[in-house]
């Protein structure tokens, strides 16, 4: 989950962050700055701990950490074609690789390391950094858009299959073979991400109005969410929660949307007896007579929860995680701030901001900013999660305050440190990691790529990016009898009569 500099590897220097990325389990945040890079621990709400800071790679625009291990991959503006792999706890370089063009993205899991260039992708084994496969002549991908599943048992890799429409290629990075092609959108892709198990893929197009979720490897569409209708936006980040119950999306606007992945269906007699169910059935029946795109809009789900950022126009990256056993939304902005919000998993709505951390500046400046932010009174009107998240005292360094499953604080109880480790393997244990034998740096230049060929691109298809914007005006006229409330008819009869006088007029055909 990362945010690379929007103007690419050759962008000018500027204030704020060059990049920001959360690790695979959202317990750590890596940022690139003009002076180098920093690694932060994000396992607590009230305090942001900088666990490592390096000045070896000024103007870093790609920084990726492997889970909570000591392995970190860095690419800097000074050498955009070279990837450096470090063991940051020992302060040594494990190896470096050079490529034929600027590196646009790097993705990691416990089995594979993927390097994405504009028209080629390189797949390495993370155990020894051996180059396993080179995907040449891939469709032009100037933003380096790609995603690698965190689940190393499948190691699915997703990348654009066409430069003009939103086709997504699913590639098995373990078995080094293509799995399927998902026709996700009519316009080019802007963001893609896998859930933690690699069984679902979320995607958004350059228009930024619709977000879709597909099953993997089948490629079947499961969910469709509408972010908005009034304007096109640049969606910069998509992220599933660890249980795949929620999906968050951030863009260049001031709003972050959180969608809930739940199937809507009949739930027995209780639903059948409600007036809203009658109305819903009537609208569903009426939508079958409308153009496909209009009926699709009526069936799309809207956001379950939203966040209003304090800044707009900033590039940012978001993630959903559990901190102290409560659901949180983390948003790292290119202006050098980290925002932490509470999420109400039952009712959704507007999320409460509980903490703001500064990511840039010296350690003293960041600590001073955090102390000033934490010295004031707690915000009013917080949800149950926000109330439970505010401790009366700062917890010890090796412990976190315990919480019960329903969100209530168990006063005095702490979580043992060994329970904080996820999984049987401790990648942050130097005895177990890194698997790469330290050796002197070497330069490896892979074979040259061939320009002019666009792989999966189908030039016979129209360029939907240049198509006119969708124009759909639906006028709904509802006539209700004056004596509706005093009518002696049954609720079912009244609802059917009410829906029978609804007139849907399509003012202009929609572009499909």
List the helices and strands and how they pair.
Blueprint: E1 2-3, E2 19-22, E3 28-32, E4 37-41, E5 49-54, E6 60-65, E7 71-76, E8 82-87, E9 92-98, E10 105-108, E11 112-116, E12 120-125, E13 131-136, E14 147-148, E15 156-160, E16 166-172, E17 177-185, E18 189-194, E19 200-205, E20 210-215, E21 221-226, E22 235-240, E23 246-251, E24 255-260, H1 269-272, H2 275-287, H3 292-299, E25 305-308, E26 316-323, E27 326-333, E28 337-342, E29 349-350, E30 352-358, H4 363-374, H5 384-389, E31 400-403, E32 409-415, E33 474-477, H6 491-500, E34 503-506
Parallel strand pairs: 25-29
Antiparallel strand pairs: 1-2, 2-3, 3-4, 4-5, 6-7, 7-8, 8-9, 10-11, 11-12, 12-13, 14-15, 15-16, 16-17, 18-19, 19-20, 20-21, 22-23, 23-24, 24-25, 26-27, 27-28, 28-30, 31-32, 33-34
Helix pairs in contact: 2-6
Give a concise summary:
The protein is mainly β and 512 residues long. It has six helices and 34 strands.
What would your notes on this structure say?
- With 512 residues, this protein is mainly β.
- The chain folds into two domains: 2-264 and 301-420, 7 Propeller (Methylamine Dehydrogenase, Chain H), CATH 2.130.10; 467-506, no CATH class.
- 10% of the residues lie in helices and 37% in strands.
- The strands form nine sheets. Strands 1-2-3-4-5 form a five-stranded antiparallel sheet, with no helix packed on it.
- Strand 8 (82-87) and strand 9 form a beta hairpin.
- Residues 6-14, 266-273, 292-299, 368-432, 437-487 and 498-512 have low confidence and may be disordered.
